[in-house]
Amino acid sequence: MIGKTGTSNESRDAWFVGATPDVTTSVWVGFDEPVYSMRGGTGAGLAGPLWGRIMRHAPRTRNDWPSTAGNDVIYLNICPDSGLLATPYCPHKKREIFMRAHQPEEPCDRHTAEGLNPTGENNSTRDWSIDQNADFE
Q1: Is residue 24 in a domain?
Q2: Would 135 be classed as within a structural domain?
């Protein structure tokens, strides 16, 4: 388990962020408006103990936490290079979570059958040599 405390200037806000191998959580103590009534309260003195009390009653592993995502989210494999939907030609894929209304819909345009094969090896037949006589005005 790890944790880090924090306190803003004049003790207006105090926080604690803690993590276990399965869960990362945080606690913030303060006011919506900058009210200075915490009288020297700190992350270690206020937020840390509160975090500890909460975590004593929290589920122990990530699989025990309830999922509230519902049907509004979707998991998709994307290409980390383009941020678009991964295709068989993308050498790397990353699973990401998206809101259904904002999910990428276009396939990756950086890795195509013409430029890369599914293993990511360049099989392009394009001539990429520089034309020494080209005018770049």
Answers
A1: yes
A2: no
3 state SS of 110: coil
Within a domain: 133 = no
- pLDDT tens digits, one per residue of 78-123: 998 888 999 998 999 998 888 888 888 999 988 888 875 444 445 4
Q: Give per-residue pLDDT as tens, 8-17.
A: 887 788 899 9
| Residue-number span of the structural domain to which 25 is assigned | 2-61
55: closest CA among 30, 14, 22, 8?
Answer: 22
Q: Are 39 and 81 found together in one domain?
A: no
State pTM to two decimals. 0.45
The C-alpha angle with vertex 84 and arms to 88 and 115, in degrees rounded to 5, equals 45
Last residue of a domain, one of 61, 88, 112: 61
